[in-house]
Amino acid sequence: MKLLIKNLIEVDGKEELVREEFEGNQLVRGNQTFLEYIDKRKVKMIISYDLTSLKRIAYTNPRTIMHFSVSQVTETYYDSLGWLKIETLDFSQSDNRLLLKYRIFKEEQILGNYQLEILMEN
């Protein structure tokens, strides 16, 4: 399966679009779907999602786990930045597309706004 990942990042009023393509695998277990791929840094990545939330796991040392849920603000730990808060603004999906809009905070300061789109092609 081909994964096209587009991440529109807005920091300090400046926007950057990061576009990446990877070969990956998809697995469905119950109401959970898992996408697995190796990113350009050679890090194993897993994205799991259901109807209301998405989780992104980077198998780095230590692991980085980002949990996105429209119903609550979540936290994640980045080795270089410490604890960060994630506010999910919108999450939608179709058979071959995920769209996630969120912002990341450190304490009360917004570090960035993000729009992540994942397109899946067999």
How is this structure best described in words?
InterPro entries: Calycin, DUF1934. This protein is mainly beta. The protein has one domain (2-121): Beta Barrel (Lipocalin). Helix content is 0%, strand content 75%. The chain contains no helices and 10 strands. It has strands at 2-11, 14-29, 32-38, 44-49, 53-58, 64-69, 74-78, 82-94, 97-106, 109-121. It has a 10-stranded antiparallel β-sheet with strand order 6-5-4-3-2-1-10-9-8-7, with no helix packed on it. The radius of gyration is 14 Å and the shape is globular. The termini are close together. The mean pLDDT is 95.
Tag the structure with descriptive keywords:
122 residues; 10-stranded antiparallel beta sheet; 75% strand; 0% helix
Question: How does the SSE layout of this entry go?
Answer:
Elements: E1 2-11, E2 14-29, E3 32-38, E4 44-49, E5 53-58, E6 64-69, E7 74-78, E8 82-94, E9 97-106, E10 109-121
Antiparallel strand pairs: 1-2, 1-10, 2-3, 3-4, 4-5, 5-6, 7-8, 8-9, 9-10
